[in-house]
Specification:
The chain has 301 residues and is an alpha/beta fold. It has nine helices and 14 strands. The chain has a five-stranded mixed sheet with strand order 3-2-1-6-12.
Length: 301
């Protein structure tokens, strides 16, 4: 397909922030920093809020940020961004410490850099437009798990929530179930972070699908006694559902999926990507062989 020639009002990448942070250079003005959870925050980061448009309250789920995480920014964009940028053609989402890197040559899904290096990262329209068409989704390079995503989820979170989700997809979104089953049970590849860049029409379709599923799950789930980490339930679920949706789009609509490494700007002293990768692999094996047996009875089928 023909490559798109874009201007800054035709592409916006949300950069989710919940605290003051240094952000990278943005010479073309395509990044849109957004304060997530603004409705329940005591601070004002002096950027776009996820509960307002032109300083007035708008359709939002900002007060659900503790359980929806960066999805409160995604929801705000779905419902409101076209009111500010009526000619927008592409929408993306990054985090204040995590950015897709279109120039990196790393072989790893993630590369770690010191926070002091963030000024060296920059993203331009030229970097992105040559990779975009009307039917493409740009995604983080996939992580390789040592077991399928279903087991990985059930070890680290509440398995009952997974089975509720399974029933919701099976009973209400059956055309997606083959991709759902394939992703969770027959592969070990996964994209984390809810990060992507996609055409506006695909974005709106995805949000309609995603938030309708999450609303059904929310209606069936009581997270009152969950720990703060486990209360991030809907953010965790959405990370997995983005994978399912992209698989579905790939096989139904021939949507092209392109993968790029994520640069993570860390305040930790050791930012060597190979070292961090080896440490994470060791942790994964420890989880598999030491922690997993404790959860065996919770993992059905």
């Amino acid at each position: 397909m023909q490559k798109k020639k874009l201007n800054k009002d035709e592409i916006k990448i949300l950069v989710c922030c919940h605290k003051k942070a240094e952000l990278p250079n943005d010479p073309d003005g395509i990044l849109l920093p957004i304060q997530v959870g603004a409705a329940i925050s005591d601070i004002d980061l002096d950027m776009q809020h996820d509960d307002k448009i032109n300083n007035k309250k708008c359709d939002n789920i900002s007060n659900k940020n503790q359980s929806y995480c960066e999805l409160t920014a995604l929801y705000w964009s779905w419902k409101n961004i076209e009111k500010i940028y009526p000619n927008i053609k592409y929408i993306g989402l990054f985090h204040y410490r995590r950015f897709m890197n279109f120039k990196s040559k790393t072989l790893f899904p993630k590369e770690y850099r010191s926070i002091s290096d963030i000024e060296k990262y920059n993203i331009s329209i030229k970097d992105i437009e040559e990779k975009l068409t009307d039917n493409v989704i740009l995604l983080p390079k996939q992580d390789n798990l040592i077991f399928p995503p279903k087991i990985q989820y059930c070890i680290n979170h509440y398995s009952d929530d997974f089975y509720k989700l399974d029933n919701i997809i099976k009973n209400n979104y059956n055309e997606y179930y083959h991709c759902f089953d394939y992703f969770f049970n027959k592969t070990n590849k996964i994209n984390f972070y809810n990060m992507a860049i996609m055409p506006i029409e695909i974005f709106k379709d995805y949000c309609e699908w995603l938030f309708s599923i999450l609303t059904k799950l929310e209606n069936e789930t009581n997270i009152e006694n969950y720990s703060p980490v486990q209360k991030r339930l809907y953010g965790y679920i959405a990370e997995r559902l983005l994978n399912v949706y992209c698989l579905y789009m790939k096989y139904k609509n021939k949507t092209l999926l392109k993968y790029f490494p994520v640069t993570y700007f860390s305040e930790e002293k050791n930012t060597n990507s190979l070292f961090r990768y080896i440490i994470m692999r060791i942790k994964s094996f420890l989880i598999l062989f030491i922690i997993k047996p404790k959860f065996h009875k919770r993992i059905k089928g």
